[in-house]
Backbone:
């Protein structure tokens, strides 16, 4: 159908004023007096709604008056300016066709619903103001990420979801199987016989695409992943989902400095893209979800990010240890309260903390010459603390091998990974950005369940 | 590191000629005579390689001569034109630093390796010519898809991977569980007790995001998904993978005609994008992988797609039934041989076949007034047959409900889906494009294992 979108009307109103337009959308509200009425219509293309005026000259005037919230209609009429009114223009309808009515028990009424209630109707909540804004912005952020990397020549790699390796030694993975659960095949020793499973071995859902990503960085130099990732953590918090999306760039011939430059440029690019392309949504979030949002994002976009080593950061934080629930000391992991203090109170802008103790970081991070720290970096931002974590990767075959031995990792599982250090190794670096948390940061939404279309969390897998 | 890429040099050579450049990359070959030598270098940014000339005036001349294929080096030198030579320019090296050497047993030597062999080293094969081309083009196609939909205002939706519903009644799904397999909890009746599982119920990996996608189309009007999808089919063919990527657009206020227009525009857009952005790779595929590739893609790009109903198509095909292994008759499913005959012999261009018998299509497709067919469409293209399948969706609550009853589907599982027909239903349509098969089509690659970075197929889940 040839329909004009509400977005086209708002963004290019001169072209439509005083002309006939046909718009399709859903009713947000109807009110009528005896001879005319108003419909507020949204069509999903734009945050703002469109007012439609209709008159009893229409044959179906009474039907329109009785429309329930949520009904789908097609309106043909003339767009006219309304300089006296709140909205800039309205449609004077000549014809309204009901595409699909909305039953009386429509679960979304005009009143404000709680986030908790809306989570119980995840198939309908995208029709509300808040979720229209959230999921339109989510889509834009995703595109901004792709555009950022593609403009810079990064190759997008689809790393696998089903994996036979237990990447970071994390036990909290989901098993993937086609075995008959009621009648599991057994080995002679009585164990479950995974050689009968679909892949002839035990498989799980991945927790990170990084190691696979590194193999492609050593071929294409600059690559990124952007795909789903899984954690079977029993964490019932506002920031944990069992299924979430991750972005993991990886660069060959790149050290920690290059890595931080990329992370800073990426964050600024995404923020800029969203502010430019979703001004109405961002204004809405700033007014109704999180009052300090725009100011915070402007700060991130316009600051030069700070840099501090972990060791220096600990010295700074130790001086104010009485402020913290968890006291800091060299060797401790930084908690959100410490991270936020650094970025909000000390630096008053985003800050990279680098060179963490090797004991609290992953085996693949590059060991520094001090033998105590690794070339890791976390990017902390006002409002939440850590948003990005990354590192330069260990590129020495011998050092990687001995670190794996120290940690008791089975070399056989990492043959391919060691090969990268054997055949044309390069200094290389990368980081991970949790996409859903990034959406939370850019929208001010406080619960990860409200930025994922159909969130999967412990005990919850609806639709 | 500030490195000039090989792509920058090729695409903008005037700016670099007779100037100093620093390039990092991997050695494809080294040959030397007594006083000088040549290195062929690729850096992953571009399909073409760069020739480096080095002389014995360098301190490490002997080391460079001994470099193995695959070594990583950084070359500083002057880019000079070579009008007499095969390649347009070369670097006269002043300094070559070895970033990482390559052990003598490097599995990729200069000779041609078989696709089968390369599949056994999926972490190294992206360094070869063919896979450099495949995965750079794969990345571009992915971006072209996003750009196509975003330019048209479609909202990108991340539909969930883990699902509690058994969407199309397909039995062939992967189970997702955190239950202890060696010690499964049991109900009093002795069955596996899934109420103890992570989500408190049985869950699987999704086979399609469509039904979830429809809920968002009824809120945003135009949406698309682009994410991984799974089939636990025991199909060991060149076209089946257990994990693959799908694109599923869905449009409200759109009938079958709109759906076909979108599919046609999308295919043409993607082809155009790749031809423009990867001319070297496409030329390579056309010369070494599939001789008719470019001609076929140009045809698709420049044709107006044909349209034929299933019933008409059967009449056409029945006349030449002796050509086919499987004879056609009204009611049969079309096989690849029939599809290819239609598009290659009859239409000599892409063609949409519409209005299939309802018995061979999914329950959610819109029933036509003849009570025998549904508003389905398959897009057939020369070379492979079906590349896209879609339909207008049933938008009538009553018709959908009675069709579900006929097929014995449990209404309780589809409450949310029926709701869409109860609250503001619209005519709406969508389709699915298997992304990996699309990559095969655009590159001419013959095996799905060679367009997926780390393919998952029956019995195979390496890395």
Residues:
């Amino acid at each position: 159908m040839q329909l004009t979108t509400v977005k086209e009307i708002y963004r290019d109103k001169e072209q439509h004023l005083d002309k006939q337009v046909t718009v399709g959308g859903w009713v947000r509200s109807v009110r009528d007096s005896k001879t005319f009425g108003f419909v507020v219509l949204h069509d999903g293309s734009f945050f703002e709604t469109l007012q439609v005026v209709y008159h009893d000259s229409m044959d179906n005037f009474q039907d329109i008056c009785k429309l329930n919230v949520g009904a789908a209609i097609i309106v043909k009429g003339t767009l006219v300016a309304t300089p006296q009114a709140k909205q800039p223009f309205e449609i004077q309808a000549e014809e309204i066709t009901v595409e699909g009515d909305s039953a009386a028990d429509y679960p979304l009424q005009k009143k404000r619903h709680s986030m908790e209630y809306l989570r119980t109707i995840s198939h309908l909540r995208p029709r509300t103001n808040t979720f229209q804004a959230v999921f339109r912005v989510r889509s834009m952020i995703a595109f901004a990420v792709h555009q950022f990397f593609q403009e810079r020549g990064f190759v997008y790699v689809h790393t696998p979801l089903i994996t036979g390796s237990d990447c970071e030694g994390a036990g909290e993975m989901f098993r993937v199987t086609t075995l008959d659960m009621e009648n599991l095949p057994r080995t002679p020793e009585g164990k479950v016989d995974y050689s009968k499973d679909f892949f002839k071995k035990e498989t799980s859902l991945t927790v990170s695409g990084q190691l696979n990503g590194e193999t492609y960085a050593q071929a294409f130099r600059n690559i990124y992943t952007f795909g789903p990732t899984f954690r079977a953590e029993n964490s019932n918090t506002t920031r944990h989902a069992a299924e979430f999306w991750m972005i993991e760039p990886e660069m060959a011939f790149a050290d920690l400095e290059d890595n931080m430059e990329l992370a800073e440029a990426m964050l600024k690019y995404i923020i800029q893209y969203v502010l430019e392309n979703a001004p109405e949504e961002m204004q809405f979030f700033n007014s109704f979800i999180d009052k300090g949002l725009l100011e915070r994002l402007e700060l991130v976009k316009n600051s030069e990010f700070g840099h501090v080593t972990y060791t220096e950061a600990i010295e700074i934080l130790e001086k104010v240890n009485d402020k913290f629930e968890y006291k800091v000391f060299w060797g401790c992991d930084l908690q959100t309260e410490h991270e936020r203090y650094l970025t909000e109170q000390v630096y008053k802008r985003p800050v990279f903390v680098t060179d963490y103790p090797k004991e609290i970081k992953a085996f693949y991070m590059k060991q520094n010459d001090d033998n105590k720290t690794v070339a890791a970096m976390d990017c902390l931002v006002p409002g939440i603390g850590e948003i990005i974590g990354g590192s330069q990767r260990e590129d020495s075959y011998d050092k990687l091998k001995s670190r794996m031995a120290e940690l008791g990792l089975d070399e056989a599982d990492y043959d391919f990974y060691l090969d990268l250090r054997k055949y044309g190794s390069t200094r290389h670096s990368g980081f991970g950005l949790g996409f859903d948390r990034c959406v939370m940061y850019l929208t001010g939404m406080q619960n990860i369940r409200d930025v994922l279309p159909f969130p999967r969390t412990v005990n919850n897998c609806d639709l």
Summary: The radius of gyration of chain A is 27 Å. The mean pLDDT of chain A is 96. Residues 125-169+206-448 of chain A form a domain with the BirA Bifunctional Protein; domain 2 fold (CATH 3.30.930.10).
